[in-house]
Design goal:
Keywords: Glycoprotein, GPI-anchor, Lipoprotein, Membrane, Signal, Transferase
Number of strands: 13
Pfam families: Glyco_hydro_72
Radius of gyration: 23 Å
Shape: globular
Membrane topology: Lipid-anchor; GPI-anchor
Largest sheet: 8 strands, parallel, barrel
CATH architecture of the largest domain: Alpha-Beta Barrel
Number of helices: 14
Organism: Rhynchosporium secalis
Order of helices and strands: HEEEHEHEHHEHHEHEHEHEEEHHHEH
Number of domains: 2
EC number: 2.4.1.-
Distance between the termini: 22 Å
């Protein structure tokens, strides 16, 4: 006896939910982020994700933002509905297994951008004393983060530092150490990863030193782009657009002009001024518009969760429930106004920009470091690079067997969202704004996120073949023949 059409439909949905699907890795090509399979430019439409702030990272309790699958499932469903394709996670514990959370975000087409440092002592370069904080045990931990996340296809990149250079004083001493840890990470990745994962730096948008920081980190000491001490990506945390600003008032015109000749991708690793409150995010059409996208590669809104700094899109409660804020609705409206298909299908534009040679003439401020002699690898680190670290954490994508969110989530108007769930995407898709949104004035939503758009229309071969078999069975059950 052949299965009924309803049975086939249910079987296909179960197959989609439990298949180990994967997004396509993102690579750099000159000044562009590029889908490694389709070759199309990739624009980051993302959010910063650090629930609990720095306290959300607690090694003694084995807790970090990617350690609880139920939390990740809830937040992935809300992010898929919002339309984001990337998250930035600032602090992770490499000793924790992240398979469930990484797989959930992978299933909905959301990439992960990961900082390798943490606010704890010995787990970052200390801007006040960079030389004494750059040693083997610190570098070993950064390599452990690489090991923990290298096998997830939705690991987009690592950040070697975040705002470590934040004024002229730190601009005098820190830059060589940022190049040093970048070199170490890239050399480790080259030797121990089966794909090239970009390593970037997230800069403070301090205009006095911004361009000097960018030039110091993007230039080459070897005469070509292969220099391992130069960053693969340069990002900046920019809050210059507040409220109903303009392209010129916010200084976006200056940023575009300044970065036109960049040899590495540039994007906003944080954006979203919180004045006025709630935010209206009028910078979104500009950031993803025709004046900016030829130069910049999108950005990440700061931040997903409401913390004491009042930048949140969602309030997370201690009982696991969540409340959407007006900022979430405003951002979703702005994202949905974008032509995401066009945004993610543009041709590579800056693939041939060559890095400048590292010379003192690149640096414009007299107090900024002009010495491009990079610190030597600390004692013991070369052995780690050559042989790999001990007790390597191992991650892998696993089937996502549960798609329904069990925690209560309320709309910004107080109505409870019914049937909230993730909607796993076919193998070659990343999530993007859909042009549709859940009705903030209604008490229910559909059980899946709005249909994601993608630059590649076909599903993965294995999934498509399985689908063909199931549909063929359905046709036999109904006495029909389908041409597939």
């Amino acid at each position: 006896m052949f299965p009924s059409i309803n049975q086939v439909q249910l079987a296909f949905l179960a197959l989609l939910a439990t298949s180990v699907l994967a997004v396509q890795p993102i690579v750099t090509k000159g000044a562009d982020l590029v889908n490694s399979v389709t070759g199309a430019r990739f624009q980051i439409v993302g959010v910063a994700y650090q629930p609990g702030g720095s306290s959300g990272y607690n090694p003694s309790s084995k807790i970090d933002p990617l350690s609880d699958k139920d939390v990740c499932l809830r937040d992935a469903a809300l992010m898929q509905r919002l339309g984001v394709n990337a998250i930035r996670v600032y602090n992770v514990d490499p000793s924790i297994n992240h398979d469930a959370c990484a797989s959930i975000f992978n299933a909905v087409g959301i990439y992960m951008i990961l900082d390798v440092n943490s606010p704890l002592s010995g787990e970052s370069i200390d801007r006040s004393s960079p030389g004494t904080s750059y040693y083997a045990s610190y570098v070993n931990r950064t390599f452990a983060v690489v090991e923990a996340f290298k096998s997830y296809p939705n690991t987009m990149m690592f950040f070697s530092g975040n705002e470590v250079i934040n004024d002229l004083d730190t601009g005098k001493t820190v830059p060589p150490y940022m190049r040093a840890i970048t070199r170490d990470l890239k050399n480790y990745i080259a030797k121990h990863c089966d794909r090239k994962i970009p390593v970037g730096y997230s800069a403070a948008d301090v205009r006095e030193i911004l361009l000097d920081t960018w030039n110091y980190l993007q230039c080459t000491t070897t005469g070509d782009a292969s220099d391992p001490s130069r960053v693969d990506v340069f990002a900046l945390n920019s809050y210059s657009w507040c409220g109903d600003s303009t392209f010129q008032t916010a200084g976006y015109d200056v940023l575009v002009s300044d970065f036109t000749k960049t040899s590495v991708p540039v994007y906003f690793s944080e954006f979203g001024c919180n004045v006025p409150s709630p935010r209206i995010f009028t910078e979104v059409p500009a950031l993803y518009g025709p004046l900016v996208t030829p130069v910049l590669s999108g950005g990440l809104v700061y931040e997903y969760t409401q913390e004491t700094s009042n930048y949140g899109l969602v309030t997370l409660n201690s009982d696991g429930t969540a409340d959407l804020l007006a900022d979430y609705d405003a951002l979703q409206k702005q994202f949905n106004s974008l032509n995401s298909t066009l945004l993610q299908s543009t041709a590579v534009t800056n693939a041939t920009n060559s890095p400048p040679n590292c010379t003192a003439s690149l640096i414009t401020h007299p107090g900024f470091n002009k010495n491009f002699t990079i610190p030597a690898v600390p004692p013991g680190v070369q052995a780690l690079i050559d042989k790999g670290i001990a007790n390597k954490p191992v991650g892998k994508i696993i089937p996502v067997t549960s798609t329904k969110v069990t925690q209560q989530v309320k709309q910004s108007n107080g109505d409870i969202i019914q049937g909230l769930a993730i909607s796993p995407l076919p193998e070659d898709q990343s999530n993007n704004p859909s042009g549709a949104s859940g009705p903030s004035g209604a008490s229910t939503t559909t059980s899946s996120a709005p249909a994601a758009t993608t630059t590649k229309k076909s599903a993965g071969v294995n999934l498509r073949a399985s689908f063909n078999v199931l549909v063929g069975l359905a046709g036999l059950a109904a006495g029909c023949t389908f041409l597939l």
